[in-house]
Write a structure and sequence with these properties.
Mean pLDDT: 90
CATH architecture: 2-Layer Sandwich
Strand order of the largest sheet: 1-2-3-4-5-6
Helix content: 10-25%
Largest sheet: 6 strands, antiparallel
CATH topology: MS2 Viral Coat Protein
Radius of gyration: 19 Å
CATH class: Alpha Beta
Distance between the termini: 36 Å
Shape: elongated
Low-confidence stretches: none
Amino acid sequence: MAITPTSPLTGGAQPDLTSPTYTLTDDYGPNSHSKQWIVTALGGTQTGVDTHSVSKPFTLTVERPANFRQLGAVNPVTGVLSSVPNNVYVLRTRKGSVPLSGQTPRNVIIETRIVVPAGCDTADLVNIEAGLSAHIGLMSDVSNDLGSTVENGNI
């Protein structure tokens, strides 16, 4: 199933945002093995937040491996795999932000990397799904706390 985010996308809780939503528009990804969306409208109370522009991007990108890695052969004597390569997926958000009033915007980059050892996707998919479920649930659950941590450094 292809990745197709809901638009408007409901954002997680943050200290300075109330019921945030983000209207997404399809964009070209940075390469042939990615999909990207730009934020074209905001919902809820997000005073001071900018939508996507060239100088202050607001993009959401999902990237899959350019070339999927496969398992090698099992050693016929020991029965052991000598190498298990990884397939890496990346979810990336870029958000332009001004470091100091009147200064040129810089990009905040938020990434989640999903490293899947080759073969696990067929031999033990349910455990990958459980890990993803817990990870996404944690991100959603602690969204507000992460915002506070970015502000004060306290975890």
